[in-house]
Design brief:
about 20% strand, binds xanthosine-5'-monophosphate, four-stranded mixed β-sheet, alpha/beta, 11 helices, about 325 residues, about 40% helix, five-stranded parallel β-sheet
Length: about 325
């Protein structure tokens, strides 16, 4: 049977009401579609009993904290923004293994969230977990593809009851729920964004320099592809962003050879993130992205376009 948000929304609201009862609940909002939709459902189900926390890890997209704050206000989500960026980057010095990076970020996230959730008196934790999250995190005889930042850990450590209203849904269904809840289009149509955020787009060790490079490059990729899709020059990809490699490659400036970082542009067509095909971006759009990145992003010297599908590749570069 086709998914119907009009049936799902009242059922999910009831589920949250029953689970939370007259207790208080807390949710971590990341700026992504899933947590915003889960928070909006909770705000509808248990108004006055919800605390929503946005932890600024420093790995957020350009302008993210401000955008999330504004969007939450519009959706009636009571949001507290906590800036912990210095603490996160401080913990990651010298770490280049992707799974270790994920673990460090996940653990610190739990600690920061716990510190901030304590005062709220919450007994229930609401999470925006969706089906691909737990499928890829292993269990039920499945191999772990990656340790998802938003799955597991939090409830056991915090002694909170868990409520995951979107657990059985796929991304396109979550968007339908967001639309059905009356969230602004830019929220429910927002491209997926990973829990560990830009940290998985700085390949290798995360340094402040490469983090700023990827933040700026991601903003340019989004702007150019949004503009090209709006002009119908191309189909809007399911996800589109930039990542930065740890190695520098050579370039020229005047008569000097200079060494700068290599940026990879990634854009994919997908339904649920489980499989994906690289997007066929018109060469002039790729050219505009490349020119802007090498002109505007200090430290970026070369731009490549990723033409691998998932599988064998993944969407993020870690
Ligand atoms: P990969 O890179 O495994 O990613 O092909 C599939 C989709 O999942 C997103 N992603 C995450 N989402 N927490 C999330 O909520 C995470 O830890 C995480 N890691 C990757 C990725 O952006 C893509 O859409």
């Amino acid at each position: 049977m086709a998914f119907n948000p009009e049936t799902f929304i009242p059922e999910a609201v009831e589920e949250i009401k029953t689970k939370v009862g007259n207790k208080k609940a807390v949710i971590a909002v990341s700026g992504g579609v899933d947590s915003m939709v889960a928070a909006a459902l909770a705000a509808k189900a248990i108004p006055g009993q919800l605390t929503a926390i946005f932890v600024d890890t420093g790995f957020m997209r350009k302008g993210e904290a401000k955008n999330v704050k504004e969007a939450s206000e519009k959706a009636g989500i009571p949001l507290t923004v906590v800036d912990e960026s210095a603490r996160f980057i401080g913990k990651l010095g010298g770490v280049s293994d992707p799974e270790q990076k994920r673990k460090i970020i996940g653990e610190l996230f739990i600690r920061v969230f716990e510190e901030n959730a304590k005062g709220s008196g919450a007994e229930v934790l609401i999470q925006g977990t969706i089906a691909p999250d737990w499928i890829e995190s292993g269990g039920a005889g499945r191999d772990t593809i990656k340790s998802h930042h938003n799955v597991g850990g939090l409830p056991e450590e915090m002694g909170l009851e868990l409520c995951e209203p979107l657990r059985e849904l796929y991304k396109h269904e979550v968007r339908m729920v967001g639309k059905g809840l009356g969230l602004p289009r830019h929220i429910f149509e927002r491209q997926p964004f990973p829990g560990p955020a830009l940290a998985v787009r700085v390949v290798g060790e995360i340094t402040q320099e490469r983090l700023e490079i990827v933040r700026e490059a991601c903003a340019i990729v989004e702007e150019e592809i949004d503009a090209a899709s709006a002009k119908e020059l191309m189909e809007r990809p399911w996800q589109y962003f930039a990542a930065v490699l740890p190695t520098k490659t050579v370039g020229v400036a005047g008569d000097e050879r200079i060494y700068k970082y290599t940026i990879i542009v990634r854009a994919v067509r997908s339904l649920d993130g489980m499989t994906a095909n690289f997007s066929k971006i018109p060469p002039e759009v790729l050219g505009a992205i490349s020119t802007r990145i090498t002109n505007e992003v200090k430290g970026a010297g070369r731009v490549l376009y990723d033409i691998t599908n998932k599988p064998p590749s993944t969407i993020e570069m870690e």
